[in-house]
Design brief:
By secondary structure, the protein is mainly α. The protein has one domain. The protein has eleven helices and no strands. Helix 2 packs across helix 6. The longest helix is centred in the N-terminal third of the chain and has 13 residues.
Length: 192
């Protein structure tokens, strides 16, 4: 089993059935497959990554022979530049509570948004409902705004487009847009 793969992390998890643990495992796993993303960088600092590993995957780093590093701040640019930073800021502004888990989850979601599949898949979650539950608990105001049950990655990017006053849907109403099913349809099939 490859170190830092989803399966390896879950095998070292304190509580493999915990949805936050699954989200962190999936985001760490996903980050390894995208240029410019290093798992240690995705939570802002080496210390943030190590804190998550210690809390959710105890002894995993030691068992893998990975040593702790000196803390080094990492800017959002180290991941994917402005896009990552904008997503992270959006999520941080909408945290339900200002706790460290919400901050870590914001980093994990922003990182997973850089992937090519549905957000829940890029996070290694079993289904969209688990992601929706995390959004409802940790980012309640965004969850409530998604009243049309739009797919989460598309919804987050639409929020960024709305902030920038960019019209993502050419039709006067999403309900008559030719891309309606791509945004609001079922989760099976290509993520587009």
């Amino acid at each position: 089993m490859e170190i830092l793969s989803y399966e390896w992390l879950i095998a070292h998890a304190k509580d493999p059935s915990d949805r936050l643990t699954q989200a962190f495992a999936g985001a760490i796993h996903s980050s390894r497959h995208h240029p410019g993303m290093e798992p240690r960088a995705m939570f802002g600092t080496d210390e943030g990554f190590e804190d998550i590993m210690d809390r959710y995957f105890p002894d995993a780093l030691r068992n893998a022979g990975m040593v702790k590093r000196e803390t080094a701040a990492v800017g959002c640019e180290a991941l994917c530049g402005e896009e990552f930073g904008d997503l992270l800021n959006l999520l941080m502004e909408h945290r339900t509570r200002p706790d460290i888990e919400s901050e870590w989850l914001a980093f994990a979601i922003a990182t997973a948004c850089m992937g090519n599949d549905h957000l829940y898949q890029d996070m290694g979650l079993p289904n969209r409902q688990v992601l929706s539950g995390l959004m409802e608990e940790y980012f309640t105001s965004l969850f409530v705004r998604n009243s049309g049950n739009m797919k989460w990655k598309k919804f987050l990017y639409k929020q960024l487009c709305d902030r920038a006053e960019v019209q993502a849907c050419r039709a006067p109403s999403c309900g008559v847009c030719i891309d309606y099913l791509k945004c609001f349809g079922p989760e099976e099939g290509p993520a587009n």
